[in-house]
Input
Amino acid sequence: MLRVLPFLLLATTVSWAFAKEAVPAAADPALEQRVMTLASELRCLVCQNQTLADSNAPLAEDLRNQVREKMRQGASDSEIVDYMVARYGDFVLYRPPLKLTTLLLWFGPLLLLASGFAVLLRRVLRRRPAQDLEITASERKRAAELLAGNESERR
Amino acid sequence: MNRFVLPLGIFAALVALLAVGLTLNPREVPSPLIGKPAPHFELPQLHETAKTFTEKDMLGKVWVLNVWASWCVSCREEHPVLLDLAASGAVPLYGLNYKDKREDGLAWLKGMGDPYRLSIYDFDGKVGIDYGVYGVPETYVIDKFGVIRYKRIGPLTREIVKDKVLPLVEELGRA
Output
């Protein structure tokens, strides 16, 4: 029995841990849906490759609550985004706005694609057409023989 | 020979770009608050809960606001720097106790020394959100007109205090 005891204890601890993390059921599913949709557009600042919707960081939780509260007060999505940007900068946006500093970010890939096409086009155009070759009568005869499959016999 | 020049050039440019990228710290998000008025708050003080403190109390003075918490590991590293800064008397230093338990915050100041003129108590972190706090400790230099002039994310070091904070405080003090 004594041997099993630690495991038993451990097992109960695990269930406590889960119990603590259980999220209370949302009072308003539609609102919750809206919160999560917007939160998935915003970056969590603590764990930078997660969205605000995915992150369990305390700050992300606070910010989700803030989003929820603002929505309850009737704020529009764009108002909430502005609220976040005013505090944390464009960095919170997964879709950065189009401005002078983000031009390269937005159009860089297009630029690379275009330059790729330009190089390709130049190469194709520069390739000289194959010249007509003069074929002598004996070469023509040999070609005909090769095509007929008689080469080995001739040798 | 010439046909290698272009690819080599492109490669060198790419290496230079990536080299610069590697030296940047992605955790340091440029704050949009620089040059903007410090967000308004009115919070109870940590020591005297009945009294409040607001950024308006500091209009006309250059001051430093330091966001700290007893659970914050880097704050421990930063603390001696803050004690020295406070002892130098160069600039009034105020604390914002962020998402902490009051008794923990008080115990921290008692045990490690209190560099702050006073600390305000932001239990739910709402004021922290208004100030764009995401990595405690954070430090703000606010000028006489209540405008944020500098923000440091992460612990202050002696170098930063000497090279950035103090020169800025002196400059703002003259203005």
Summary: The radius of gyration of chain B is 20 Å.
